[in-house]
Amino acid sequence: MKILGIETSCDETGVAVYDTARGLVAEALASQTAVHAPFGGVVPELASRDHIAKLTPMVQGVLADAGLGLGELDAVAYTAGPGLIGALMVGGSLAASLAYALGIPAVPVHHMEGHLLASMLEAEPPQFPFLALLVSGGHSMLVHVRSLGRYEIVGDTLDDAAGEAFDKVARLLSLPYPGGPQLAALATDGDPQRFAFPRPLRNQGLAFSFSGLKTAVRLAIEAEAAAPGGLTDRARADVAASFQAAVVDTLVDKCRLALEQTGLGTLVIAGGVGANRQLRERLAGLGRRLGVRVCYPRPALCTDNGAMIAYAGACRARDGDRRGSGPPRIVARPRWSLEELTPPRADVG
Ligand code: KG4
Ligand code: ZN
To answer: Which residue intervals of the chain bear CATH 3.30.420.40?
Structure first.
């Protein structure tokens, strides 16, 4: 089966073709960084308009790269949520109308399921069941992944997501949007022990909380700025490194606890913050200590992309109904819990 995947949930337009016989055959990604940077964050209406402008030529380009005609596709998968409603509607509209015109299924995909399964696109993919640390701009959670569509959230955030905390602290340090990768880059030159930031909810179950840490960072920045000499470049790098260390320590600690509690032998890292080098190194170390296999996709498959949507769509379409039926229907759900998902129909029956 050849599946076209379309991702437009937020500020990246992602398109890819996944072939169940050959793997990932072509992909393209367009970032909206330049569109949103002047505003310091994502402007939903501008995101939708940019997806509209980019999506159709990108689909044509990816099909050309894959050497495929439209008629050779078996399904069109698209991100149906969670995400920005206007942005979701752009991908959903194209996917549903294309699938209708071609007489093939349109497969609505949960964005977080795409992230969860992304490491399966790599060589030596993880096997079910596994524990997933899912850390993105909107979510921080630990998920017990039993099999495709059987997900139990064992740890969630009480307030900010990890990526959101990175982005907010980056803004406090006057770093340009998107903040997470910029802050990680600044941290490489800093002293992670200069500021003793809190490790929120340490040894208190699997819930995360990052808003108190963010406040502690803000107070430290204000104190530095008020001191003689002001907020120096050195201090900025030290704040970045100390903040990153606090987040990474917290995430590693929660993973350790969740692995102990669930007894699972594989840990999978997913979502944009999974691209963080420090986090990857520390979790690899944790895996070695506990005798647990740690899998993470390459950084480009941690952040939003079309390949993970094509792949998740392929997993769901593989055993399901191959014919498109009925009038086109666009599924777009801004809020949507992973736990609402069920296995594909053929699996259940
Ligand atoms: O998964 P993703 O691309 O989009 C969402 O589904 O939210 O995650 C984006 C988040 C942003 O908050 C971004 O700042 C963060 O991931 N991020 C990073 C890094 N790369 C992306 N955070 C820390 N270090 C990075 N290297
Ligand atoms: Zn994402």
So the answer is: 2-116+302-340, 128-296
In the block, residue with structure tokens 């990932």: 24
C-beta 305 within 6 A of ligand 1: no
**Which residue type does 167 have?**
D
CATH H-level superfamily of 128-296: ATPase, nucleotide binding domain (3.30.420.40)
* Rounded-to-integer distance, Cα 113 and Cα 117, Å: 6
Is the full-model pTM beyond 0.85?
Answer: yes
224 CA distance to ligand 2 centroid (A)? 34
- Model confidence pLDDT, tens digit, residues 138-179: 999 999 999 999 999 999 999 999 999 999 999 999 999 889
Nearest ligand atom owner, CA of 140: 1
Dihedral Cα 95, 99, 100, 104, nearest 10 deg: -150
Query: What's the CA gap between 14 and 59, in Å, rounded?
Result: 9
Which atom, in ligand 1's list, is nearest to the CA of 277? Answer: 26
Residue 112 Cα: closest atom of ligand 1: 6
Pocket flag, ligand 1, residue 243 (CB < 6 Å): no
Q: Which CATH class is domain 2-116+302-340?
A: alpha beta
How many residues does the structure list for the chain?
A: 349
Q: How far, in Å, is the centroid of ligand 2 from the Cα of 87?
A: 13
Query: Quick one: which ligand is closest to 270's CA?
Result: 1
Of ligand 1's listed atoms, the one at least distance from the Cα of 161 is 12
Tell me the per-residue pLDDT of 275-319, one tens digit each, with 9 for 90 and over. Answer: 999 999 999 999 999 999 999 999 999 999 999 999 999 999 875
